[in-house]
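Journal club prep, shared notes

We agreed each person brings one worked example of a sequence with its structure written out as tokens. Mine is TlpA family protein disulfide reductase. I'm keeping it raw so we can talk through how to read the token line rather than staring at a rendered picture. Sequence first:
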Amino acid sequence: MAVILLAVGQGVIAQVPVKTGIWRALLHREDGRDIVFNYEFSWNKNKPVIYILNAEERMKVTDIILAGDSVFVQMPFFESSFRARVYSKDSISGNWIKATATKSVVLPFTASSRYTTRFTAVKGPAATNISGKWAVQLYKPGNEPSPAIGVFTQKNNKVTGSLLTPTGDFRFLEGIVTGDSLVMSAFDGSHALLFTAKVSNQKIANGMLYSGATGQQQWQAVANDTATLPNTAAMYLKSGEEGKLNFRFKDLNGKEVGINDERFKNKVVVIQIMGSWCPNCMDETAFLSDYYKNNKQRGVEMIALAYEYTTDAERSARSLNSFQQRFNITYPVLNTGVAVTDPQRTEKTLPQFTPIKTFPTSIIIDKKGKVRKVDTGFVGPGTGSYYNEYKAEFEKMISALLAES
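Then the structure, token by token:
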């Protein structure tokens, strides 16, 4: 157990012990469908550290301020934060605040170290094992069903995995099967998700997905080892375009950088279309940043084109600088100055293309500067074998382009 020294009044110090270890946190929706997640609280060189836990992911959070009986936690991405009060060594309560393009989402938040289990098996052992691949349908009122692929691993009653859609994946999901009931959740500062459903050997039925403060949709699935997804988020060069790009924007130091600069000539270049608000962009950036450091000497270059919530340059710079520092990005990150919500975002930045439909999207150009491939969406490490396949295909593509004269 650690002790936080809190200043109270004029020079009076109160000692509030805060328990280290695993905590269970809940985001309280008005409909009572609490979104559950775990975090680990610890100290490193007398500074508080939190790790947000989802399956095998441990998201480190160090921007933590203690003042009076209050705790302020700034998540490393997504303009997401907690403001809470320490009530006792094992009890915290406050709000989660998530900025968006228009207004902030606010959800009440409580956490306790007395109850650390994410979900309790109230219906006993799992009646079935849902490990494998599932063809999923997501339903929103008034809309056509949206396809997805579920990939799950179950050991005893614990379930981990993710859902893949044509635009990306739901990242790291964690939960349990208890009796015939499935419950999973995830929280990363942007995603705040709760899945519930009834399960059998071949079907997942009566599913509900609760997201954020008010979002909800139905879902169902059938076991299917050959499930595939349509390419509905595809982005192409417009008819008649020669495949050469010509853009120029400022990097995070205010220096103008363009695709036709000397550093990119005779190089294979990956152009990352992203935003600091985008969870899948986080996973893609972790992959690309590492790949660039290990392969730039082979003749590979990268550029990130950022589309932020607003055209507020200072707000965008804060978010992008945090993003760049967290992933130690050493390739240029360019702020396009165009909001992600701008219906003319493609025409204003990459007019040679059909509309940008999803974030992230990557454009790969060859050593002659011609577009050779466009990848929409990104499947991250939460998808297991899909992520491994993506990395292998990416390396194969880059190696083939590097081998060209």
